[in-house]
Amino acid sequence: MLRIRYTSPLDLDISGSAGELRGIAEGILAFLGSNRTGFALVAGAGYDPSPYRIAISGLLVVKGGGRLALTVEAESLLRIIGAPGSLEILADWFLFDEAAEPKEHRHFEYYEEHPFLAPYSLPLVICVD
To answer: What is the arrangement of strands in the sheet containing 105-108, beginning at the earlier edge strand?
Structure first.
């Protein structure tokens, strides 16, 4: 089950099987090749989000201009907006080998003078369950 979990202000996690995470990458890439302005995905529900505070129910990816930004809206939606090139880079971060071990993870976060991530963007941990 794909899980998006969050504790304000800076702890954001997307976890799932390698295949589920790959599905996010494939969805973003298909969206970028389309005329659509957004790509939505429903995450799992009814689970204990521990050690995080809340379970986020959905993901919305939007084409925009400028740097990539990840924000949580109303404690229920992870919104990702950015230029197509930046969204394509983000998609690559979700590509884990099918043989990836549980707990294998990546940190996608801002650092000073980051070339495509906005300074106010939430740091994200992408983890294989």
So the answer is: 54-56, 3-7, 11-16, 124-128, 105-108
- Could you tell me the pTM of the whole model? 0.94
Domain that holds residue 43: 3-128
How many domains are there within the chain?
A: 1
CA-to-CA dists, residue 46 to 49, 54, 78, angstroms: 9, 11, 17
Q: Can you say how many angstroms the Cα of residue 76 is from the centroid of all Cα atoms in its chain?
A: 14
With cut-offs at 50, 70 and 90, classify the pLDDT of residue 37: confident
Contact 5, 124 (CB under 8 A): no
CATH number, domain containing residue 17: 3.30.1360
Rounded Cα gap, residues 121 and 10, in angstroms: 9
